[in-house]
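Q: I'm writing up a methods section and want to include an example of the input and output format. Could you take the sequence below and give the corresponding predicted structure tokens, formatted cleanly so I can copy it straight into the document?
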Amino acid sequence: MNELANKLLYYTSSSTSSTQPSPTHHFILRQSSQDSDTTNVSPIDQLQDGLAVYTIQTSKKTIILYRGEPNPQQVVGECKAAFMGLSMHLSLRGSQFSIRNSTTGTKFIVESPSYGRLVWKGDSLLGSGLSLYKTSGEKIATIKSGGILNYREKQLLLFVPCDVYYVEMVLLTAIAAMKLDKRADDIAFKLLSDS
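A: Here is the clean output for your methods example:
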């Protein structure tokens, strides 16, 4: 497990893009073939059948982040829906903070005593995926689809040097933002279909 943790912390992607910096960390999030509510998180260069560095379990109102395989002793963080599902309370290694849906566009505001105010925004260029920004406008991370052939996968790219705790915060808030985004779409669809 320590070898996987080292890959998690020190992986640097070789891919580059002219529009964004090179990622310092690059992960693949794969939906479990046995359970659609379970997602395995691994460095992008790890084989598909390798052990997950993190496992995410979701239910209608809860997200649980585990270090490695799901086990009550391995819980790293948890999100619980609040206020009609438009915000979530997060607990990450004892630190409490929140993420909420903004009233303006596809934005999800993270407010944390440890990390300050961060914003997940919808990617207007591609129409899918979310990117995390500091209030200064610096892009921290992006979570995007694995592509048409890998529709059950997501890719998480971090663009800043960081420790394992920061990676966990980004991962947990990314999943929470995607869940809030889906919830907002469901509410909008229901309102439109009822009118």
